[in-house]
Amino acid sequence: xxxxxxxxxxxxxxxxxxxxxxxxxxxxxxxxxxxxxxxxxxxxxxxxxxxxxxxxxxxxxxxxxxxxxxxxxxxxxxxxxxxxxxxxxxxxxxxxxxxxxxxxxxxxxxxxxxxxxxxxxxxxxxxxxxxxxxxxxxxxxxxxxxxxxxxxxxxxxxxxxxxxxxxxxxxxxxxxxxxxxxxxxxxxxxxxxxxxxxxxxxxxxxxxxxxxxxxxxxxxxxxxxxxxxxxxxxxxxxxxxxxxxxxxxxxxxxxxxxxxxxxxxxxxxx
Length: 270
Description:
alpha/beta, Rossmann fold, 18% strand
C-alpha cells in the first residue's frame, strides 16, 4: 500500500513521518511550510502577557517539539515536496503523479476542493488530537480540555477527511490514559504518542481490510464543541494553569467520577 503524507513542518510531524515510514511504503511527503506572521503591535502585547503569566503553556509545547527534534533527525528517505499552500495546484499535480493508495494528513491548513475530491483507492484520512465531535478546532484541544475541566475528553481521533474543521466521518476515537501525576509537558507527550499509535493502528486496518474501517457520522454521536484560536483567551489560559498548579488534574484523574465519565463516552472503536 503506497502512502503519501500531507503534513506541517513541526517536529511532531517529522516523528509521525518516521513512524509511518518504518512500517509502510511511504512514497512521498508533501510538507506545508507556513509563513510566520511576524511581530506587530497587534500580537506583541498578547505575547508579552503569555510570557509573564502563562509561560509554562508555551514551555510545555516547546519542550515537546524539542523532544521530537532530538529523537528524530531529518525526514525519512522518500520524496519530499515543499509548498507554501497545501491547496495549491502544484500539490494536486504531485498527488496525481505519485498515485498513492492512501493519503494521510496531519497538521496542514484546512484542505479544500479540488484536492479533497481527488479519487484515492483507500481514501484520505486525517489525524485530530482531540476527540471528535466532543472537542474540535484549536489551537490545541488538549489545552481546551484542561482549561474546561473536561479531562475525560482528552484523546485522539482518526477520521475520513472532509472540507470542515475536524468534522469528517469517524474511523476511530480513543481517550488518552493518564495516572494523574503528569506535568503539562508529559500530558502533551502522552497525547501525541497516543495519536501516532492510533494512526498506525488505523493504517494497519486500511492495509489489511479497509472495508472494516468504520465511517460514523459525528452528528450521530453528539453535536460537540468547535473551538477557535480567537476564543483561547486570558481566562482560559488562567484556568489551565490553575488546574495544573493546584493539582486539580491529579485529583480528578484519580477519582471515580473521572472513570465514570470516560466510560460513558460514545467512542468509535476500530
